[in-house]
Structure formats: structure tokens, C-alpha cells
Amino acid sequence: MKDGAGGRNRTDTPFGRWKRGALAHGIGRTKGGRNTKLHAVCDEKGRPCVLLLTPGNVNDCKVAEVCIAAIPPSAELVADKGYDSQALREWLEARGTQPVIPPRKNRKIQYEYDKTVYKKRNVIERMFCRLKDWRRIATRFDRNIQNFMSAIALAAAVIWWL
User: Fold this and answer.
1) Cα–Cα distance between 132 and 143 in angstroms, integer?
2) Which residues pair with 30 in a beta bridge?
């Protein structure tokens, strides 16, 4: 609901309080405490192409299609076990992309994947390490989600040039 004076958003509570909680700042509850997740897609050189910030309690598979749809289809996509879902595999194959995702241990049908291609996953891990060289990003100094995402975008632009 919008407030006429100032246009600030109110929550759907009967008391109409202002949104200033954890969800408004992209922070979610996890086993490790309050957390934020940065989902990223990078190219073969480790340069970030797509960056998406979600609360820490959001499943990886829920935002995977949004991130991957932002780039043109590639021959193969390398991801970790957090992105192992049947729906994502089918969507990638319909798109013409070979998923290189190891199956989870508890999966009844253990899919085969190319282990030599999966070794390229270190490229995205190195990209995250480069992002975390920026102390402001590694410790999340910014409470506001817009400021934090702006700092990530600035760091990504510098990484792209290097």
C-alpha cells in the first residue's frame, strides 16, 4: 500500500508500519544467522556478467533461471550442487545448453556430468574472491540493499577492466 505523503511503501500489517525490516534490506534468516546471497553468472575469463542479490534464505534454484535468461545461450553451463533441480536441467536443455551440474547425494537418479568440464567452476570461485577483495563487500558494511548492490556493481566494473 502506498502512502500519499512521500510515496513510501507500507507493509500489509493492520498497523501500517513502514518497511524497515530485514526483508526490505535483502537480509534473510539462515542456520548461520542473518545473511545475504549474491548470485552471479560470469564468462570464461571470470568477468561478472549477471549479478543478483537475494536474502540468504532463498533457494538457489528459484533465481537461477532469472540469472541465466539474462545472457545468450551457451554450449554448456557449469554450476554447483545448489543448482541441481530437474526443472532447471529441463529448461537448460530446451534452451540448447548442456548442464554440467553434479547431482546431490540424496537424489534418487544420479545424473552423469562431465568432470573435466566441471573443473572450470573455479573460474566463478575466483571471481567471488576478487569481489571479496573489496572489504566493503566482504563484510557488508551497507545496511541498505541499494547501497550494497551499488558497491558490488562498482567492484564488478573494476574487475571487468582488470
Assistant:
1) 17
2) 33
